[in-house]
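Need tokens for this chain, all 109 residues.
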Amino acid sequence: MITTPNTNSFTCKIMGSKWAHYNLEHIHYFNINSIKKIAEITGFEILEIKPYFKILTIKYMNYIFKYNKRKFLSFIFSILEKIPILCNLQIPILAGEFLIILRKKGEII
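Here are the structure tokens for all 109 residues:
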């Protein structure tokens, strides 16, 4: 099982160079086609590919927007963060990642 940022995701396309996943901790970037090629070369078969929901809090999203200098979103989320019931509310977000489930070719589950 792999989860990784998806360079063909909606969030990547709308945020462009400001996409939150473009940072130094990611040495390589992938999309569905590159994952399929890697799986084929390494002898794996893909069982499932689907969007990956990340669980984030309002507080964490505000931090990310501030860090990435998204002023409008940071302003909105800084207001929401001040509401105690919302501050640590966990929200499933499609942030541009995908989940890939693979198995070695020929192996039986």
